[in-house]
Amino acid sequence: MIYELREYTAVPGRMPDLIRRFNEHAVKLLGEHGMEVVFISLTEFGPQTMGQVVYMLRHDSYDALERNWASFFADPRWIEARRLSELNGSLVSRLDRRLLTPTPFG
């Protein structure tokens, strides 16, 4: 099992549109493409307060992660949702991504 932490920094003024795209399209499609959404949050404290959507996905393996994202990005519903949501410009100015493997500490 691996986890993927993704941080999307919104273009100034575009956060409502980014949240709308997650709520109306992305969350459902992520699940349909085998990605379990563990949580989604807005940053409350730190340098990107009010400017980031942060979420974590769970994948069975690195290979599954690759397959899941490939099928997600090829989905015509995602392609159209992204196109329509970005008619007035990009919603995301920066994407940071980390892969995490649970490790016992003791």
H/E series? EHEEHHE
Whole-number total of structural domains: 1
> Using only CA atoms, what is the Rg?
14 Å
CATH architecture: 2-Layer Sandwich
Determine the structural class based on helices, strands and strand pairing.
alpha+beta
Strand order in the largest sheet: 2-3-1-4
Number of helices: 3
Q: Main β-sheet: number of strands, strand sense, barrel status? A: 4 strands, antiparallel
CATH topology call: Alpha-Beta Plaits
Which oligomerization state do the chains in this entry correspond to?
single chain
What top-tier CATH class fits best? Alpha Beta
What proportion of the residues is helical, as a percent range? 25-40%
Beta content:
25-35%
Spans of at least 5 consecutive residues with low confidence: none
Number of strands: 4
How far is the first residue's CA from the last residue's CA? 20 Å
How much is the average pLDDT? 94
Shape: flat
Task: Please describe what this structure looks like.
With 106 residues, this protein is of the alpha+beta class. It has a single domain (2-100), classed as Alpha-Beta Plaits (2-Layer Sandwich). The chain contains 3 helices and 4 strands; from the N terminus they run E-H-E-E-H-H-E. It has helices at 15-32, 62-74, 76-85; strands at 2-10, 36-42, 52-59, 92-100. Strands 2-3-1-4 form a 4-stranded antiparallel β-sheet. Helix 1 packs antiparallel against helix 3. The two termini are 20 Å apart. The mean pLDDT is 94.
